[in-house]
Automatic annotation (TrEMBL), chain A:
Protein name: Putative protease yhbU
EC class (word): hydrolase
PROSITE patterns: PEPTIDASE_U32
Keyword Hydrolase: yes
Gene3D superfamilies linked to this entry: Translation factors
Keyword Hydrolase among UniProt keywords: yes
Taxonomic lineage of the native organism: Bacteria, Bacillati, Bacillota, Bacilli, Bacillales
Domain of life: Bacteria
Molecular function per GO: peptidase activity
GO biological process entries: proteolysis
Similarity comment: Belongs to the peptidase U32 family.
Automatic annotation (TrEMBL), chain B:
Lineage of the species this protein comes from: Bacteria, Bacillati, Bacillota, Bacilli, Bacillales
Enzyme Commission numbers on file: 3.4.-.-
Record-level GO BP terms: proteolysis
Pfam families assigned to the protein according to its UniProt record, in alphabetical order: Peptidase_U32
Record's keyword terms, sorted: Hydrolase, Protease
Protein name: Putative protease yhbU
Amino acid sequence: MSISQIINGKRVIVKKPELLAPAGNLEKLKVAVHYGADAVFIGGQEYGLRSNADNFTLEEMAEGVQFAKQYGAKIYVTTNIYAHNENIPGLEEYLRGLESVGVHGIIVADPLIIETARRVAPKLEVHLSTQQSLTNWKAVQFWKEEGLERVVLARETSAEEIREIKEKVDIEIETFIHGAMCIAYSGRCVLSNHMTARDSNRGGCCQSCRWDYDLYKLEGDQAVALFDENDDPFAMSPKDLNLIQSIPKMIELGIDSLKIEGRMKSIHYVATVVSVYRKVIDAYCADPDNFVIRKEWLDELDKCANRDTAPAFFEGVPGYKEQMFGVHSKKTTYDFVGLVLNYDKDKGIVTLQQRNFFKPGDEVEFFGPEIENFTQVIETIWDEEGNELDAARHPLQIVRFKVDREVFPYNMMRKGH
Amino acid sequence: MKKPELLVTPTSVAHMEQLAQAGANAVMIGEQRYGLRLAGEFSRKDIIDAMDVARKYGVRVYVAMNALFHNDKVDELGDYVRFLSEQQVDAIVFGDPAVLMTVREVAPHMKLHWNTETTATNWYACNYWGRKGAKRAVLARELNMEEIIDIKNHAEVEIEVQVHGMTCMFQSKRSLIGNYFEYQGKFMEVQQVKYAKGLFLYDKERDNKYPIFEDENGTHIMSPNDICIIDELEDMIDAGIDSFKIDGVLHEPEYITEVTKLYRRAIDLCAENREQYEEEKNELFARIEAIQPTHRPLDTGFFFKETVY
């Protein structure tokens, strides 16, 4: 299938990639879908790689699947641990459960889980996880012959390598476009096991790669420091992935699914990142030959970033500028302060759930899939009973105030520092 | 009682001969273009010579092709496999399915050992790769004794376990040592330091030293301790584990030879004269401790450790 066609004298993209978003809980799932994700990946109570995340019960998954269906969106469940013997009992029941609630597919690394799913839950699509660190077309060919519908490539593959894989093997390709990532080949790092006795390949990773170390060289039995007193310590913390500038190239390569990392991230993060990539993909597909990245999209992404970002391997082998030394995070410039529940068009009054402190006089920004971003200075704030408040102080408190332009449920309100 | 094979890693052809004399049954060799974290670099010429040594001593030769390959090397895998097949090496060690596919095409009778270092964690996966063509699975180092024996009890393939030496904790494609030097502005020193020997990362909180090095496959970080279970071999010998590996990466040849001799004695005793083994095993351990480099403490790896997640 060709990527583009000429329609009415204008080239348009007819093979639009899936935008795949993370969700750590049901609320985030709904936000991701509402903000434009074509598919969402979530974790269950077992067999996933974020044992610290909220993760979904089967009932929540069922609700998530039903919600996504209204938007034509799909739900995938990460079941990408490398299992130990003790994880085998219970697996069949777990996979049958996923199939029964209508989950579309699972993301898997261990052949145990691949073959068990085929046997007991054949309706589930099976996607090979990046934990397998797939880096060449011949390995992709192997997994295609094993009957997998899709593979997620290693973060270490370049644009040119993806082009060759696409040419040689007819299988769906999913690649990461945004978010945190391992600095090691995924699945080939057991730092956590050694340093904290937590199994990284079963969801226990404690990100030891992001700690500081000192680099020495042994001369005989003497350790000689390879840094000066005032130097930043040795670090191997990668900047977060950000491929917004490469989306056109990725679409032209025919990549089938563009994936955002971050099941542990906030709903504000998910909403912001999903909405920006939604706009980029839609704008490019509608008119690829006149497409330019708009500065407001880049600014928007920056509003939810808590680390510096870089394009990593897609655009070549990353050097020291794509790593972070001496700093571990950057200050976010915006706080997420409220979620729109309702808007009374006649009175121009919003009903909103408080997510962070704000008060009359604050300048806030609204954003969401139905609206262009706009700022608003908050005037009087009332509670649900109509009592005037000096500020919106309480988490999840329902408040009302005047907003000049129309806003919609799930729109978000953020405030600069 | 069945004796497990004693598999070791020579640093050179000459060293391989010493290891054969020290009692090794098999060696793993190769070159970094295709293999990961080898004790020595063996060119094609060296492999031909190694096969002579192997025939002289009745030692099996396994060649490492366990790198993660990118497209650029895929097309040359066939030529290397064909060469290894012509030399009649005993097995190819692989992790990347591209190697499996290549062997099927050009040397379908070649034996394969599945070794990804970290992902052979359950018996089902071992048997899966067995059904795909592997004769042996090399278990992840992060398993405990109970898990290892349970895998062996369910395995349809040979099971190899590392019993001695350091293990890999981390592999990145990035040039992490070089990048650190560039970040410090020491551009002139990058090439020199990147491939320097004896580099380690110091972890203050744990007071650990992790060896680190770069090669064609990226940056590798190794465990702070050497596994040594020369005095704990009973259960695995009783369970019929097929191969015990001593990994000598980053160790001196003399050290590897001495350790090989001691494990030879330990395995023979444990299999043939259990009482004598029980009597001597502490002494065998002490003899390894005596030659241990000062910056390399011994431990028992994950054999007796609880891991959570």
